[in-house]
């Protein structure tokens, strides 16, 4: 009994609150108290032992499991002798006088009999009042009967353990059968195509760098790096997928750099070049990305190559007479400009050539025209929209306004005329050769 927080007196259920009775006793809660009642029912001539586990005769001691037993023995007085005891005993199990349930085992005892359950069974009280024996499900007990590496299977009267997948039975040093990890990697040769990693309860296949594990979790498939990383260019030139890796290669006219992906242009025009191109007397070699251009300077009639400047044709002085000299170009210069294909151009344009005239004339006039374009039909050809001129006093800048697609060769002519008192006093022409190469690098 105790007082609750409102001052009322309430009963404590000792049977629930604490383990008030022994294992073989039934706890009965009463108002303000409790009592323990022995589950053991001993018949006349027998009494419960001190621990309450068994019934004992005054003159005999035995400790059979008698929890399940109902003694229906003959009444025996305490004064009987042991010898008489034996002679007087009736085997109730034999005679069928016992009261054991269908699944119980009857065991005869001196002065009575006991009903026990087969191994692996436990007693169950039936609602009708009798007892029966039911199988113990060892697999659902709190205490594990099988190791964590095994599955438990209940059977009537017993149970068995079966190793889980990845484990197998093997006797240990104490000859206890236990479930040990199977080293699949060594037990099954060729289980994994490339690498096998054993671990407790399983295994895993892994692949060499450049490969990925297939759907079957054992074969290794090459990673096509060229395809997987196509948005992030692995190679400046071409990407070639190889088993376990990839390789870069470059178009003709380039060499693959030591870094394995950059393409470096071969300068065919370099004097130490092994290519030996443009060997003609009036040839001018222009190196382009991925190639080169050879331009032979053929001066117009009345002009000859300047001995000081190979890219310049000068008017033969004795050819020109009087006013005519002022409207005829005094010289032609040949200028070579190279671009890669689709070069990004800022909206304000990009200066590709600058021509300066003498300062002492009243006025200078510039004129730009497209002379020739060489490109295959699938290439977007340059138009007047691509170019512009920007004049500043005696100087003019030729601007590229839009990106150009290669390969294409464009020949432009920029002529400059100088004036004094509104009269032309001289002229020169700059020929611009624009070589747009095939690739963007
Ligand atoms: Ca069982
Ligand atoms: Ca394993
Ligand atoms: Ca690959
Ligand atoms: Ca080149």
Automatic annotation (TrEMBL):
CDD domains for the chain: EGF_CA
UniProt cross-references to SMART domains, sorted A to Z: EGF, EGF_CA
UniProt keyword annotations, A-Z: Calcium, Disulfide bond, EGF-like domain, Extracellular matrix, Glycoprotein, Repeat, Secreted, Signal
InterPro entries per the UniProt record, alphabetical: cEGF (IPR026823), EGF (IPR000742), EGF-like_Ca-bd_dom (IPR001881), EGF-type_Asp/Asn_hydroxyl_site (IPR000152), EGF_Ca-bd_CS (IPR018097), Fibulin_C (IPR055088), Growth_fac_rcpt_cys_sf (IPR009030), NOTCH1_EGF-like (IPR049883)
SUPFAM superfamilies linked to this entry: EGF/Laminin (SSF57196), Growth factor receptor domain (SSF57184)
Main location: secreted
Location within or outside the cell: Secreted, Extracellular space, Extracellular matrix
Superkingdom classification of source: Eukaryota
Keyword Transferase: no
Residue ranges annotated for the EGF-like domain, each copy included: 89-127, 135-173, 181-221
Assigned protein family: Belongs to the fibulin family.
Protein name: Fibulin-1 isoform X6
Gene source species: Drosophila suzukii
Gene of this entry: LOC108020338
């Amino acid at each position: 009994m105790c007082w609750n927080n409102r001052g009322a007196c309430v009963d404590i259920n000792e049977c629930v609150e604490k383990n008030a009775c022994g294992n073989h006793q039934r706890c009965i809660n009463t108002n303000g108290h409790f009592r323990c009642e022995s589950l053991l029912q001993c018949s006349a001539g027998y009494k419960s032992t001190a621990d309450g586990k068994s019934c004992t005769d005054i003159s005999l001691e035995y400790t059979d499991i008698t929890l399940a037993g109902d003694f229906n023995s003959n009444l025996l007085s305490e004064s009987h002798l042991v010898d008489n005891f034996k002679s007087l005993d009736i085997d109730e199990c034999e005679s069928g006088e016992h009261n054991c349930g269908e699944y119980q085992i009857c065991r005869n005892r001196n002065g009575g009999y006991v009903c026990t359950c087969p191994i692996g069974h436990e007693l169950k009280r039936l609602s009708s009042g009798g007892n029966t024996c039911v199988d113990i499900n060892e697999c659902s007990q709190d205490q594990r009967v099988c190791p964590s590496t095994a599955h438990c299977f209940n059977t009537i009267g017993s149970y068995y353990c079966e190793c889980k997948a990845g484990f197998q039975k093997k006797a240990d040093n104490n000859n206890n059968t236990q479930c040990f990890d199977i080293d699949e990697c060594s037990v099954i040769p060729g289980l994994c195509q490339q690498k096998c990693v054993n671990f407790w309860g399983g295994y895993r296949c892994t692949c060499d760098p450049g490969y990925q594990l297939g759907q079957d979790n054992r074969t290794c498939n090459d990673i096509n790096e060229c395809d997987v990383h196509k948005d992030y260019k692995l190679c400046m030139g071409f990407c070639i997928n190889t088993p376990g890796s990839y390789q870069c290669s470059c178009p003709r006219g380039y060499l693959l750099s030591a870094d394995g992906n950059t393409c470096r242009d071969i300068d065919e025009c370099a004097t130490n070049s092994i290519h030996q191109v443009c060997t003609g007397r009036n040839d001018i070699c222009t190196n382009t990305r991925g190639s080169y251009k050879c331009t032979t300077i053929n001066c117009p009639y009345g002009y000859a190559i300047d001995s000081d400047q190979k890219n310049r044709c000068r008017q033969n002085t004795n050819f020109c007479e009087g006013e005519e000299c002022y409207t005829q170009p005094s010289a032609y210069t040949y200028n070579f400009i190279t671009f890669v294909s689709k070069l990004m151009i800022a909206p304000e344009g990009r200066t590709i050539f600058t021509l300066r005239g003498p300062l002492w004339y009243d006025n200078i006039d510039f004129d730009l025209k497209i002379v020739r374009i060489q490109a295959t039909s699938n290439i977007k050809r340059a138009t007047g929209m691509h170019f512009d001129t920007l004049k500043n006093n005696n100087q003019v800048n030729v601007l590229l306004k839009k990106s150009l697609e290669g390969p294409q060769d464009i020949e432009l002519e920029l002529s400059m005329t100088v004036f004094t008192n509104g009269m032309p006093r001289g002229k020169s022409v700059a020929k611009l050769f624009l070589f747009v190469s095939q690739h963007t690098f």
